[in-house]
C-alpha cells in the first residue's frame, strides 16, 4: 500500500547503522534522508519538504565541501604551503565526522554552529582545536558566500556563543634537580649526534625542527651567532623535509650564543664525518629525523629516569624557565624563543613570571621598609 504524498516514516537501519527519515513523493516513489543522528535525519527531511534543498547539485554543497574547495583554492594559489595545507586537511578530516557535514551549507544556522562547538567542548577538545575548527568553518562559509550559496555567514553573527575548550597542560620544564641529573647522565651516555642535539636545545631554546635544519651557513663562529632561518616541515603526504622558512615570521631570529655553546659547536664540527653542510646528519648525508631523535630520547630517559616524561620541547621550556629565573625580561625571552608576540611568552610562562613578580614585590617591600623605618621609629 502506497503512502499518501508527504507521508513518511522514521526508522533505524541496523544493518547500515543509521537513521532513515522517508517521504513519499507525488510520483509515488520514496525518498530517504539518512544520518547516524536521529534529529539530523528528520531535519534533512524537513528541509526538503520546506523547499530548502536546491535543485542544482552545486547549491547543495555541504560546509565540509566548501571548506575543501577553499583549501584547494588557497593551495593552488600558493597562499598555503604544503605543510599548512596538510595540517588544515587534518582539521577537515575531524569536521567531516561531525553532524555539520550532513547538511547543505545553505541550511546551517547559528544554532547548528553553537551546538557543534558546545559538543566539541564537552568532548574535552582544547582551545587550540576549537580555534582551528572555527577558522575552518569561517573559511568554508566565506567560500559559500563568494559562490552566492548563502547571504550571511553564521560565523559573523553576534549570537555565536564563545565556547571555552579544555585548558592546555601547563608548561613542564626540568626542575633544577632533574636538570642536574640530566647533565650528570650525559657524562656517561654519549650517543652522537643525539646528545649534542639535546644540549643545543637546552642551551639555546631552539625547536627540534630548527636544530635538524641547521646548517653551517647559519652559524657565524667569529661573532658567536646562530641565524635561525628555516625549520623542518612536511609535504602533503606527511614526509619531513627542510623548509624554506621558520614556523612563524618571528621564528627567524639571531641567537647570540654563549661560550658553552661555542665549545659544543666547535666539537661537533671537529668530529663531523660526512660532507654535508648540515650541523647534524644521520651519517648518510640526510638530516636527523625528529622521530628517530624522539625514540633515542625516550630510551635515554628509561635508562636514567630523568623525569616522568622527557621530550624535546621540555628542553626549550627549561631554557626559557632558567632565563626567567635569571630575571631576563619577557621581551628578551620572546626574541630568543622566536614567539610572534610577547603576549604568547607571558601566557606560556605565566606561572614562572608570577613567581618572579612576587620576588620583586618582596624586594620592593623590604626596600621601603628599610627607607621608612627611621621615620617610623622617630614618630
For the structure shown, list the relevant keywords:
379 residues; DNA polymerase, domain 1; disordered N terminus; hpI Integrase, Chain A; three-stranded antiparallel sheet; single chain
If you had to describe this structure to a student in words, what would you say it looks like?
The chain has 14 helices and eight strands. With 379 residues, the chain is mostly helical. The chain has three domains: 1-53, no CATH class; 57-168, Tyrosine recombinase, N-terminal domain (DNA polymerase, domain 1); 176-348, hpI Integrase, Chain A (Orthogonal Bundle). Strands 1-2-3 form a three-stranded antiparallel sheet, with helices on one face. β4 (219-220) and β5 form a beta hairpin. α2 runs antiparallel to α3 (82-95). The longest helix is centred in the C-terminal third of the chain and has 29 residues, at 350-378. The radius of gyration is 29 Å and the shape is elongated. The termini are far apart.
Question: What's the SSE blueprint?
Answer:
Layout: E1 10-13, E2 18-24, E3 30-35, H1 38-49, H2 63-76, H3 82-95, H4 110-122, H5 127-146, H6 176-185, H7 194-204, H8 208-212, E4 219-220, E5 225-228, E6 232-234, E7 240-242, E8 253-256, H9 259-271, H10 290-304, H11 312-325, H12 330-337, H13 342-348, H14 350-378
Antiparallel strand pairs: 1-2, 2-3, 4-5, 5-8, 6-7
